[in-house]
Amino acid sequence: METKPSRPHRVLTPSWLLPAIAAAVILVIIQLASGVQIAAARSGFADQTAWLRQLAGASQSPGSLRSSHECFEPEDGSPEQRVCVFSNLLLHKGQVFYVSPDPQVELPPIQYAWLKKFEGDDMFKATIVNQSGLPFAWDKVEVERVATAGLFHQQHYSNFYHMFSEVAPTMHHVVCKWLGDCTYDAHSSLRLFFVQEKQAGQPAYIMLDSLADVFKCLSPAPVLHKDDVPLSGRVVILEKAVVGVSPEVRVFHNWEKDLKENWKEPPRAAMQVYRQRIADCFGFPFDQRSAAGRPLHVLFINRHYEEGRTVLNAAKLAHQIRSMSEFRAFPGARLDIAYLESEQSIREQAALFWNASLLIWPHGATMSHTFFLPQGAQAIEVVPWVQQDKANLPEWVQAIRDAFGLRIKLYDIQNRERPRSMFNQDKLLEYEEYRRLTSDQKIALLERGECPAGVDAFLCPFWWNHWKVSVNFDWAALEPVVRQALQRLKAGWNEEPAPSKPKTLRRRAAPPPSRSPGTHPARALAQVESGAGAGGTVGTGAPPAATEASAATGTLAATGTPTATGTPAATGTPAVPGAAVAAATAPAVYDWTTDGPAATARDEATGVPLSSFTCVYDDGAAARRYCVFRNLVTHGGVIYYISQNPASTTLPDIQIAWEEWNLEAGLREDKFFVPAVVAPAQLPKEAAEALRSPEVVPRAVLAHAVDSGNFYHLLTEVAATNFANQCGVLGLCDAASRAGLQLLFIQPDPRRRFAMPHAPRGGFECLGGGSFRYMRFPPVSSQALVIKHGVVGIGPYMRAYERQEYFAGFKDPPPGVMPQWSKLLGECTGTGFHTTPAPLAPLRVVFVNRPWSQGRSLLNLPETLDWLRGEWAPSRSFGAPLAFEAVSVSAATELRDQIAVFQRASVLVYPHGATMAHAQFLPRNAAVLEVIPWKNVTEPHGWLLSIKRQMQLDTLEVGLMVNDDRANLVLNWHALSKDPVWRALPAEQKVDLQENGECPPDHKPECFFDWLHWRSNLVLDRDRLAASLEPLIRGVLARGEARGKAATR
Asked: What is the pTM for the complete model shown?
C-alpha cells in the first residue's frame, strides 16, 4: 500500500541528537535483555502472572526515558486511518503514558476501531506527561520491558465470529506490515494488549478460551487488557508498539455504510499468510488439505436451542441425506451432527472442519470455521427466517471466502415458509414488551412474523425475529442443493474464488487532534511542568520492511365363516378350565408329540392331514380363548382347517388382536382367527399340488402384530403378552422347552406391506427361535405348510397398561413369568442384561431424546448436558465419577444394539414416550427418570409404572419430573398451522393455550392428544431436573454399595 508522511506535528531538532544516541545505547542493553524474554517464552507459562513474572525487566531506573512516534498515512484513505509506531510508551494501572518534556505536545488522532459502539471509544488515547509527572517512582515499582507490542481495540467482547474472522486477522495484518512479525513463532517476544477504555455501559471485558488460543498464534503470551490485574502492580515499557488499523481491515464491509466507504480488505496474499500462520500454530496443514480423494464426511453443525436459530429437524434431515443415492455412492461416507461447545478448544473445533467435505449450518458464527475447510469442500448455509436482512446474509461468508482465497463452493438457502420459522416462546415470555401485547398482536407475530407497532425497532424485527427463532427446515428445498454439492464433490471440484474488485475509499476531513483527557491527574501535573524539545517525529515514507507473500403388496383369500358359538367343535378336545393353569411352573397341559393319533390323522382317500384343536384356556370369552390347532395347512396366504365334514364343523371364536383402533374396519380376519374350513377334496388344486412336498412345521405360534410400526406396543405389549401366555399357560418358558417353536404372523395387510422396526423384530425373533415369518407374503405364501401344532389366541394374561380399555378382563402375567422373558431376551441377544449390575465407575446418566417432529423433544438438551457436566455443583459431591451423555436410538437400530446402549446406563432420563420400553433393559439397581412435558399431567407415568410392576423390575427405582412452567412447553406452530380446527380458533384461545396450557372448551380431546401430546416440545428446567436427578443418583450408589457388601459376605 502506498503511504505518505503524516502532517507534521513537531519536527525533530538537533537538540535531540544526544538523547537519541543515549536511546541507541539503551537499545543495545534492551537487546541483551531480550534473551531473558526468549528464554522465558521457551519455558512455557501456566498463567498470565507467571508470564509477567518471568518477563520482569532490568532493575535500573529508566529516568531518562522519552517517548517518540512515527506515523504513516494511506494515499487512498482518511488521515485518522493512520498507523503509528511508538517508542517507549508506558502501561501502568490501566493507563497509557506518553513521556515527553513538552506538556503541550499533540499526538495525531489514531482511529484503531472500525466499529464505533460507544461514543469516543474508537480513538486511541494516551496521557502525555513528563518524567516528574509520572504517578509512580521508578525505584518503587516493578518494571517489565516489552521489545515489540501491538495495541488494539477489542471490537467485540464475546462474539466468536467477529473476533476470529475480523479482529484477529486484522491484528495479524498490522503487526506483520508494521513490525515485520508475519509468521508463527512459539518463542516470539511480541506482546498484544487491548487498550480501549471501559466506559460506563460497556460490557465487561471477556476473552473466550477459544479466542485466547487463536491469539497465541500471534503471540505466545496471553493477550491482556490494560486494566487487567496482572498489569496493575507494575510498569510496562513498550519499547516499540504499533497502534492503528489503516484502511485495510478484514471485516464484512457491506454491514454498515461507514465500513463500506472507509475500509477495504487487506490483500488476499496477506490473509493467506495469516492462514498459513494459524496452520503452523495448530501443527496441521489444513491450508494445503484437499477434500478430493478422501472419504466423504458431511458435517451438520447445529445451534443450541437457547441460542436461537436451531434446526429443529436436523436429525430427520440427516437421515434423508444418508438415504440419498449420491451420498451412498461414496465408500465409507458418514454424516455427523455436531454442536460447537464452549469447552472445546479452537483446535478441537478446527479438526471437525478440516476433515469435512460438506458443511451444513444455520446462519451464525459457524461461518467463521469455513476458514478451516479443505480445498474443494462444499458449504451450505441455511437461513432460518423469511424476511430479508438489511445486508444480504450470504455475503458474510462470501466475504470470508474471498478475503482468504478459500477454494470452497458456497451455497445459501433461505426458509420461504413463515410457519416453519418458530419463535422460542419461552424466551419471548421473558420480555415485558411481549407480555404487554394484545392476543391479536401476539398471534400476528407468532404466526405471521408481524412486528406490532410501538415495539422497539431493534427488539422485534431483529432480536426476536433473528435470535429467538428456530426452524423446521424444508427438505424439498435443501435436497437439490445437497445433491448438487455431492455431485461437485464426486467430480473433484476445486476452484479459486475470483479476485476482489479494486475499491476506492471515501476521504474524510481529519478530526481535531486528540488530546489526553484533561481531567486525569497525571495530565494536570504535566501541565505545570516545563521541558525542552518535542516528543513526536514525522514518518517519511514506507513502514518498516515486512514481506507478505502469497498465501409390494400381498393378496389374501379367506373362505368359511366360523360360527359364534364360543364352544369347541365336536372335532376338538374338551377345553381346560380357565383357572387351571396359573403359573410358569404348571405341569404340561398339552401333548406336543407329532406322532399321536390326532397329530397323524389323515384322510384315507387323499392322504391330506385332518385338522383338530384343543383349547387349553377357555373362560367363555373370545378375547382370552387360547387354543392349539393340529394339522393346519397354509398356502397362497390362506389358512385351511381340513375337516371331513365342513358343514358340521364349528370353530370357536378366537380373538387374535386387541387394539380396535389400529385394525382394518369391517375386516373380521383382522381381529379373529378365521381359517377356511374345507374338506380334503375341496382344497384348491394349487394347494393340493403343493401338499405333495410341504414344509412340516412341528410347532408354531400364529400371532397378530397388533401395531406393526409402533416400537413400544410391539415389544412391550405384543411380544411380552405372547410370551406371558406361552409360558404362563403352556409352560414354554426357557430355551429348552421352546426348542423348534416357530412364529408366524397371520393378520391380513390390505393397506400396506407388513413392516416392523428392527428392535421389536429382534424380540419376535427371540420368540420364534431366531426368526419369524409372515404367512401372507412370499416365500411362505408360495409354498404349502403343514403346521403340526399351532397356538392361536391372546390368552388370559396381558402385559399392558392396565388402564387401557383393551386390558379389561385380562390378568397380569403370573409371578415369575416376566423375569423369564427378560432372561430369554438376554440370552437370545447375547447381552445378558438381566444379570448386569448398574455401572458405578463412571455412573452413567443417559438421556434419550425424541425427534422434534414427533413432539415431546427436549429442545435444550445439549446445553443442559453442558451445564450438568460443568456447573452442577452436586455432580462433584457424590463420591463417584459421573458421565452425562445423550444417545440416539432409531427404528433401524437392532435390538441387541439398543439393549447395549441401555445396559450401560445407571440412570435413564427420557421424555414420556416409547423409550419407557427400554426400562426393562436397564441393569440391576439402576434408576429411571421420566419427564412429563405437560403441567399437572401425571397419568401417562402409569405406563412406566405398569412396566416396572408387571415385568417385576424390583431393583429399578422410578422417578418422575413434571414440567410446572407453561412457558417451557413450546408449541409446534408449523404443524398447528396445517390444522383447520386450530386455524379457526380466536386469538384469545390460541394465546391461552400457548401461555397457560388451557385447552379450548370445545376442543379438549384434539387439543391434548393432537396439539399438546404430539405438537409440543419442552425446554428443560435445569434446577427442577437437578432436583429430580440427585436422589436417583444417590439411590443407585447406595444400592450398588449394598450389593458390593453383600457379595463380600
From this structure: 0.74
